[in-house]
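#struct-queue
[09:14] JT: dropping the first one here, sequence first, then the structure tokens:
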Amino acid sequence: MDLTRTDFPPFWFPEEPLDLLPATPLLLVGWLEGTVPTRGPVEEVVLSTLFAAELRMHYLSDHSCGSHACALCVPPRHRPRVRHGDREVTPTGHGFYLVEHCGKAYVAPRLLLHYMVDHGYCPPDEFLTAVCDGRFVADTRPTVPLSPPPVQLPLWILRGAFTFLFTAVMCGLIWFLRGGRF
């Protein structure tokens, strides 16, 4: 079985804690490098659930720790197009799924669908059950602010700036009206 217990590096989590119990064991699934440990068919319901998770963006960002290319493809691909039936997604080698089920959390790369559909990878049954019966933990907040936060200046600074600008404009107007002399 290719389930490996792990602890997350601190840079993988968003600033706010995820909705997981502190003692939840974390298990790695599907982090493949060069070989496929187990091959076989995967049930349609598992693939449909993972396609839906990808399309609904139910994955976590690893905050730009770099992009991972599929080492099974020749040449390696960073954004493989995954087709299954009438569905198509293009997962990146960046980010991961976090699936919680029965007191455990499973961590799988976003390239998992590519590994399963294009390379015949079959994850452990325990994980397949978690995908169907568990829940995807996702950070729904944007990882990059869409606009800078508004600047809050103290009122005395705003009043002072307004007074200065008003005085400068009035002095300029008086100077102009007097023909360039005071």
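[09:21] JT: and here's the second one, same format:
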Amino acid sequence: MLLAVSASAVAFAGEKTVTRAEVPQPVLRAVEAQYPGANLTGFSREDEGGKTSWEVALQAGQRKLELELDSAGAILETEETLTAADLPEAVKKAVAASRHAKARVARVEKITRAGKPDVEWELQLEDAAGRHEVVFSALGTLLREEKRQD
């Protein structure tokens, strides 16, 4: 698999980019407590289903992460940008055996959700048919797939 990791933007559809000053203090304190000394690089707010969540992009040493938190500062989800070399063997084998075996790996994210023991691996793959986002369990089970329009 070839690897090219791109920096991911914080704000996606349904999210609004905000300034640090607009982020609630409990959110900032929680991020700074979990990742002391990290460089906070971006912020967004999402209102969905009557609930507000906050996303903070950061760099902690060589690690690039995006955290989703509630307004009280509880971490709901962590996305860590990694490389194809960091994928579990089961995921590497699943991709190699899939119709995307010849696709270029453009992005790899390890996704951890609060209260859920299972880690998910999200890959953005590019091939002649276009851009695809696939999500695997750590055991190599395909969980979701969609063709990207961006």
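[09:30] RK: nice, looked through the second one.
[09:31] RK: The first helix runs from residue 25 to 34.
[09:31] JT: good to know. The chain has two helices and nine strands.
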